[in-house]
Amino acid sequence: MVDEKVKLSKANVLLIIVAGLASYMDAALLVSLGVALPIWTKYLALNSWMVGLLSTMLTVAVAIGSFVGGWLSDKFGRVAVFNADIFFVAIGSFIIAIAQNTTILIIGVVIAGLASGADLPTSLAVISERMSSKVYGRAISSTQIFWTMGILLSQFIGFITANSGMGSPAALFGWIGLVAIINWCVRVFSKRFKQIETDLVDHEHVECASNGQSVKKYRLGQLLRTGGLLVPMILLTVFYLFWNLPANTWGSFVNYFLVTVDGRTQAYSTIVALIANIVCLLVNLIYLKVSDTRYRYRVMYLGIAVALLSFVTAGIFSNDWQIFTVVYIFYSGSTVLCGEALYKIWSQTFYPVDARATMTGFSYGLVRVLTAAFSLVTPTLMGYSPQLLLWIMVGCTVLFGACAVIIVAIIKKTGLKDPTMKSFSREAD
Asked: Cα–Cα–Cα angle for 317, 318, 321, nearest 5°?
């Protein structure tokens, strides 16, 4: 039965922790930037367009990193590229931490963004290459817990340093740099960890060969001309784009929105985001239990419904910051059930082993480019009409929800290797 879970070994867990820290750092960078924006606006005299530019530059750098990093990891080796990514996340974060003017700030943002973008498709491929598809849900959902912890801890650091002026960004990004450099040292200097990575990948490649799955190299152009891969890639990209636009908007700009548009204090905006992400963490722990079971797609539909209801309510009552506060917390919880984790699971399900980093990097990078364009105008749009922004979020939710339904239908129809689907056919019988 599908609910009879394959246990994660100690080696699996250690790999998830070390690779999952990449998700922690990615989320921490994005959210720390959002927490720091109102502070930089005050102390570095930034206008709304410069605020949008900083967020956009980070997103563009992440996108370029994803395009290049996925391809490099499939070509030159995931472990080597992953190690380099982590090192440059540390360098970029330390530069942001000490920045006292916009020029140095932009340099740090670009370096950290490029490295952060490159490590996402690479880290997913590192994990899925070494694990059975029967544990993809738990393995990838575990990285989402690290993602949530990145958000949560960044909001917490932002809260306790809210009255520290420029000391707050220094603490936020200095901590990210410290985590990155420790992670890099473990990956580069730990003989035990290197052996675990080698043993796990050898085991999974042998298993693939025994199942008749060959491991070979693919070119991006070849992959994009393959109908069986192109259609899922388009659907996954559209799904992730319209899920990511609301998620990125509020992850990066909720502090700016509550402080600049709604007139709340920095401490209030940070504690609201902190509470929302505690809810995210709790939901993520529940999702970890059901992600490899027949409930995966049932909770997905629930998440889509909650997200849609949240934005509709916020749009109707757009002038009430109290209502926005409540629905923002509900929306944040819903993202766990119907977003990033599913995108990552599906990316590892649809694509061949040695094409996953390239395909995921291309898709992720494309989404980030488009998200960057939206981030550029977001602060101005918030100031012009918060209600219009919220109704745009409603439209995004409808679109990513529709894509999710179509993707699930394709998985059922084509009989892809999705263990959670077995229960549907058995129940139907």
From this structure: 95
The total number of residues shown for the chain amounts to 429
| Phi, psi angle pair for 25, to nearest 5° | -70, -35
pTM > 0.85: no
Q: How confident is the model at residue 334 (pLDDT cuts 50, 70, 90)?
A: very high
Quote the pLDDT of residue 280: 86
Q: Which of 18, 27, 16 is nearest to 182 (CA)?
A: 18
Cβ partners under 8 Å of residue 63, min gap 6: 117, 364, 365, 366, 367, 368, 369, 371, 372
The 8-class DSSP code of residue 130 comes to T
Separation of alpha carbons 88 and 184, rounded Å: 10
The sign of the CA dihedral 234, 119, 110, 149 is: positive
Residue 414 neighbours by CB distance under 10 Å: 11
Residue 198 pLDDT exceeds 70: yes
Res 125: pLDDT: 72
